[in-house]
Write a structure and sequence with these properties.
By secondary structure, the chain is an alpha/beta fold. It has three helices and seven strands; from the N terminus they run ααββββαβββ. α1 crosses α2.
Length: 159
């Protein structure tokens, strides 16, 4: 995920230091963005100046890869100590595949990715690292029907 690495090193307005405890989470969020064709998202892609305004699903949120905390990015919610707990990016024209780095969001309780164009298999890091904690209440993707877009043995809901 070279694009995410390049962004963290050269383009991230936050300019985090290597020992910053939020670096891994921010990097994993950037990998999610690039791996799911973030620049082609319907709302709140990195240059979406209208993100969070009007009839947006992401009211009051910031576009991805902004200088704001990733907790303020559209579709992400965090707990009081800044750990991502929710990823809700359904119906936003995501493509590509879910990257294994999503498994870094160890306290996530909701991951909603359905009604997109994500294909492939849900990474083992998601099923192995997040699901066993017993806290994951919703992991939804387009894994239902006769011809699912994604294979997801640990999903709690398939569309």
């Amino acid at each position: 995920h070279g694009a995410a690495t390049k962004w963290i090193l050269e383009g991230d307005p936050m300019e985090l230091c290597p020992d910053d405890e939020g670096l891994v989470q921010r990097y994993a969020a950037a990998v999610l963005y690039y791996a799911t064709d973030g620049n082609g998202w319907r709302e709140c892609f990195s240059n979406d100046g209208n993100c969070g305004e009007g009839e947006s699903s992401y009211s009051g949120k910031k576009q991805w890869l902004s200088g704001s905390s990733e907790c303020d990015w559209a579709g992400l919610q965090c707990n009081l100590i800044g750990e991502i707990t929710t990823i809700e990016l359904h119906d936003n024209n995501l493509g590509g595949a879910v990257p294994m780095e999503v498994g870094a969001f160890l306290v996530a309780s909701t991951i909603e990715l359905h009604e997109n164009n994500i294909q492939g298999e849900m990474p083992a890091s998601v099923c192995d690292n997040i699901v066993p904690l017993g806290e994951l209440s919703v992991l939804s993707s387009d894994c239902g029907g006769e011809d699912p877009l994604i294979e997801c043995p640990c999903c709690t809901r398939c569309y």
